Every structure is written in C-alpha cells, then in structure tokens.
Amino acid sequence: MMMGGVSWHTCTLPPLIVTISQQPCNLLRPRSLSSSSSSSTTSEHKQVGISKIQVPRLKHIPISKSHLLDAILSNIPTLHHSNHFPLISKYLDSILHAEHKTMLEEMRSDYEINSQQQHHTHPPTLNLTSRFQLTLMQLLYQAQFEELSVRDLMLTSALNSDYLLTLPIYVDWKRAYESNAIIFRRGYATENQKGLLIVEKLDYLQSLLLRTIFFAISKPLQKLATWTTQKHHVQSWTERLRLWLKELSVFQKSILYNEHASDEKTCANQDTNGEIPIWLAAQRAVARYEGILSPVGPRERLFRRLLSWIGLIPPTPQTPFEVDNDSNTPEPYLRPTFLSRISLSDIWRPATGKYCQSNPWKMFKTAISILFSQSVLQEPAFEELILLYTNDVGEPNAEDKAEVPSLQLKIYERIPIPDLPVIFPHKKLSFRIIDTVRLDLATILGLLAYFINYKFENVSSSPSAILLDVVAVSALIIYGSRVVLGYKQTWDRYQLLVNKTLYEKTLASGFGSVHFILDASEQQQYKEAILAYAVLLNAEKGQQVTSRQSLGEKCERFMYEVFKVKVEMPIDKALNTLLRLSLATETCVDGRHGVMAIPCPKAYEALKERWNSLLSLTQ
C-alpha cells in the first residue's frame, strides 16, 4: 500500500543526474534530468521529473531452488545425462540445512538463557549475547542483506519530496540512536495501488492550487524583502533572522556522517573489542539516517521555503546525485535495471494545457474523465527490509523481555521507497501541509466570521441579550469542539493508515524473524553453490582452469538468458562454499590461477561422506 503519490513527470529521456535536496520534504519536486543548477523560482516550478529509477543489480538469486535446478539440468548439456548431479544437489541441500539447523539451536539456546537471566533481573551474559548477534550478522551477510546505503537514503529523500501528498512521518532520532536502530535491505520491487483514487486525485489538485498560491504570494513579498533589506535599520534585523534560522536548521547534522565511512559494510567477524557488533553498526547507521532523512514539521518547512523564495534566507543546498548510464553496454545482463514509476502527475498529465492544446473545455472533459476512471499508482519499493533495534530502558510497552538483549527484529516486504520512515520504531506523525492549511484556514475563517458578526449589547437596555450571549457562547463551544474533533479525526486517520501499512507489510517479527533469516541464508547459499558448480562443470569443457571473474560472468549470463534476471553474482561466497565442501579446488595451470570443479562422482562421494559424519554426530 502506498501512502501517497509523489508528483514527478514522465519523460522519455534516460535519467542522467538527479539533484536531491538536502531538505527531504520540499514544497517543490526535486530537479532531475537537468544539468543546470539554476535556483530561480520559475525554473523550479516548471521542472520535469523522472519516470524511471535506476537501481543496482540483485545480489541474491530470487529464483526458487526447484526452478533453478530444473533450469540447470535443462540448459547445461553436460548435465543432461548425469546421474550424480541430482544426488549432489540433494546432499548439498541437506548438508546446508543441517548446518543452519545447528546454528538455529545455538541461537535458541542463547535466546532462552538470556531470557531467563532477564526474567530474574540478572544481567545478560555478554559472551552469549555477542555470539547470538554475531551469528545473526553472519546470516544476514550470507543471505545478501545489506545496510541501507547513502544512495538508498538519498533516493528516499528525493522521492519523498512532495510532502503535500505524502503522509509526513519523521523519526525521533535521539530515541533511535539510543535504541541502536539499523535497517538492512535486499532487492527492489514495485508497489502498485489501483482504484478510482478520487481522494488522492483531489488532494493532488488542491496541492497544485496551494503551490500556485504560495508562488503568487512569494513574488510581491520578494520585492518587498528586497526593498526592506536595503534600508539600514532593517539590515540588522534581517541578519539576526538569518542566523537564527541557520542555527535551527537540522540539516547541519549532515556533517555527523562521513559518506565513505557510512558505506562501509559491517563484517560479521570484525573485531568488536567486547562490544556487540550490531550496536557498533547502528551508531554509524543512525547518524547516516539522520543526516539525510532528518525532517521537520510541515509548518516549519513551509515557513523556510517561503523565506527562501522571498530571499531572506539562502535556498536549500542541493547535491547532484550521479546515476551511471550504462545503456550502451554490449552485454544485456550488465545493463542497469530501471523501475518504472506512475505518479499522480502522470495520471493528470492528459488534462494539462500542453496535451489539450490549451482548450479549457477539452481540459475540463478530460479532467472529469480522469477523476472518475480507474487509475494505477506505481512506486519503486524495497523488496525486503529488516529492522533491528533494542527496547528502551524502562520502556513501559516493552512486553517481550526475552530478546537478546531486548533485541527486536521486524521484517517487512515491499515498502515503497518514499515511505521508508514508516518502519522506524520511534516515529512521529504530523499533519500534511494540505490538511493543515485546510483545517487551519477553516478554523480561522470560522472564528473571524463569528467575532465579526457578534454584536455586544448593553445588558441593562436589553435583558434578553444575556440569553443571546449564552446561545452565542454555546455556538462557539460547539464550533470549537467540531474543530478539535476534525483535527483528531485527521490524526486518527493518519495513525490507522500507518498501522494498516505495517500490518500488511510485516513478514515476521521477534524470534520468528530468525527463522526467516536462517531460511534466506540457507537458500541463498544453496543456489549460489549449485549454480556455480554447474557452470564450472560446463565451463571446463575444452579448458583446464576457470578464473573467478570468468565464472561469475558465466553465472550472470546464465541467469539473464534463462530467467531474464540481472544478478551480480557473489562468486567469492559461492566458491568458498564449493571449496569447503570439496566440490571444487583452486589450482594454477601454466601460470593461470583459477578453480576447477571436482568431477561429479568424486563430488558425490565427498558430500555423502560429510553427510554421514553429520548423522553420526547427531546420534
């Protein structure tokens, strides 16, 4: 479910540069497909957005084990008549399952021991706690989950720029830092919302009207600001205002993270010096999240934007976000992957003057047709997200005290990229600008109408005025109650939408998340190993040794030609599994270093022997 539309325009040009504002929720859409850095109001108002988002190739194999095995047997000629390969596949699957089962039992044991210690108010054992979390990090690494990168966060900030239509959620970063919140992702997808979408369409039209009004107001104010700043007695006041706004700017916190340090991957076997590795990774991660996603309230955002348009404060700094364009790469499996977007601006585009030859009647008929027609919104999404955080000390709602140590795990699927803040544990709701303006304007106009029309009568000359005053005051109280109720209903609608989104998108939580991660790690290891082994067997026909790079490229080509999936094959991890299980060996032939596959009969015997040894250990 998408909680709002992001108004970007569709265009046919390939995206080259996306300029992303450091202020994640701008009134205007971020500038894109443009090499110009002009910050004029007119150019910003007419800017054109992008309809496709470039994302990296997948690092995990999204195909099921059975389909992958069938494809290998069907498309690799050397394995057509191999009786051993299916048996090798079964033994490999069983061995990896047994290894992960052992890891699960160790984690369960650590979980239960720490649970008992916490229940009896004893401090948790540090070595058990560290072992649990080190194992968890190792599983995340094997399953190809990655920390959210700077690129992911900047993309979230850019797509979430149209805050008039997106539910404003901002995170309590102080609590997020204290709870060591960290997010891992795997894969990208698209999320669709279908229906009449009448409310969303009307909200978009109102946002355009509101934006036009703001621009109209800013122009005369800009002239007034230019004239007043030339006056000597006003200059000191203006300078103090600029300094005050600069000090309040939360985006100065972007210096808290270093872009190069932020993208360092957390290694499962790093030296923790007695500290828990997830905590170490989270301290860097929260600073990175805050530096890019830090939002402020809608009224402050609007106030800052108006002051920027007027010229009292400098415009929000913008960072060019380079997007590689490798469309001319000869190999199709190496070309970039693009996710399509359909926003509300795309839906309304046929009713614009450009497409209706500025014919008002034609624009009106087209708009009515669009309003009452079925529509589709489509947004790029994170395919899988894992949130890890710890309960706050003394948190009253911390029901599950059996985590290690109070470690909370939640797994979500298909979270739209602009709605990433919705999964954070400590988030705050605010009113959208469009709702704020509607509610505030209605309240102000109603109160003005009341006090303008209210007439004060002399009680001595008109005793009945007391009754009229009672009626008037009662009407004012009733009106005030309706205003408060209107705000509360809007707030409740926001909260219901957030809860519904999280409920529908949650895959697992608590210790159940460990089962999910274990299964993801097991399946990924199996698919990497069986694919690499099969391709290595086929590649050695006519050559003595195969390099790691060549093997990885052959695996990537196989995945694209058979499944049309672009994968960045983690060949080093796959070969580590093959070498560990005696399915391949490293060698050097004629000065060429590479790997060779163990023939199927010998590989079968090696796996059979290992499986038997595992069985003997369990008896």
Automatic annotation (TrEMBL):
It holds the Pfam family DUF3754. Residues 29-49 are annotated as: Disordered. Residues 32-42 have a biased composition (Low complexity). Coiled coil: none annotated. Transmembrane segments: none annotated. It comes from the Eukaryota. This is DUF3754 domain-containing protein.
